[in-house]
Amino acid sequence: HYLDKEVAMIHAVGIHKAYRRRGYGYQMMESFLNTLTKKTEAIRLEVDSDNPPALALYQKLGFYTLNRVDYHAMIF
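The structure corresponding to this sequence follows.
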């Protein structure tokens, strides 16, 4: 969704486990980013720090770290 006229936010991206590490995620994101960059100035997303493959993919696509937040996953 669009946070405002200048920033779009990507909330969730996923590739089925059977199709990971084949370049599909890169191709999908590259196509999506090409579309979004025509409509907005910046694209933001959040990625779990414990997901190195996703972090590497986003960095390869040109994303950089804006900030890092530590959080607790809790269950009752």
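The mean pLDDT is 88.
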